Amino acid sequence: MARRGLDRLDGRMLRALRERPRAGLLEIARQLGVARGTLQARLDRLTASGVVTGYGPDVDVAALGHAVQAFTTFEVDQPAREAIAARLRAVPQILEAHVVTGSGDIWCRIAGTSNQHVQQVIDHVLEVPGVRRSATVIALSAVIPYRVQPLVDAVASTPAEAGDTAADGA
Questions:
Q1: What are phi and psi of 116, to 5 degrees?
Q2: For the chain, which residues score pLDDT lower than 70?
Q3: pLDDT of residue 55
Q4: Do residues 89 and 108 touch, judged by C-beta distance below 8 A?
Q5: In terms of Cα–Cα distance, which of 123, 95, 89, 91 is closest to 108?
Q6: Can you give the pTM of this predicted structure?
Q7: Distance separating alpha carbons of residues 43 and 41, to the nearest angstrom
Q8: From the centroid of its chain, how far is CA 45?
Q9: CB 43: neighbour CB atoms within 10 A?
Q10: Contact 141, 68 (CB under 8 A)
Q11: For the segment 104-138, what is each residue's pLDDT rounded down to a tens digit?
């Protein structure tokens, strides 16, 4: 996929919005030393291009009582993949799911209240027609929780004509 244009101001704006999501654009514009209209136009452009995908609060699932996180790979019958994906979307404990290469077909991140609860979620998915088997690992701790800001910073500080990987500059 082609890189979406981000410059240093875009990166600084996104950092400010992530660090202080409840701050108004006027306050952030003052902090960054630019006009509010400039910031609004940039945010609108990034939203329209699909770079900015949401404005909701980040939620800690452990604080919701779902402290056990598991990563499960499901092997599935390929013709049933779309129907299986629809069924997975209906399971609230499945935080994300991806079609993957390698030994499994669909990778899911599952949140549960206990190991037994995670097992119940997996058993529920295994009942879906076309799901053959699963392999699961339980997360012990998050060394790096989900994040995007370091990537935003790297993209925003790299000239557009440079490559898209850190290895290009190393």
A1: -65, -40
A2: 1-4, 159-170
A3: 84
A4: no
A5: 95
A6: 0.80
A7: 6
A8: 20
A9: 19
A10: no
A11: 999 999 999 999 999 999 999 999 999 999 999 99
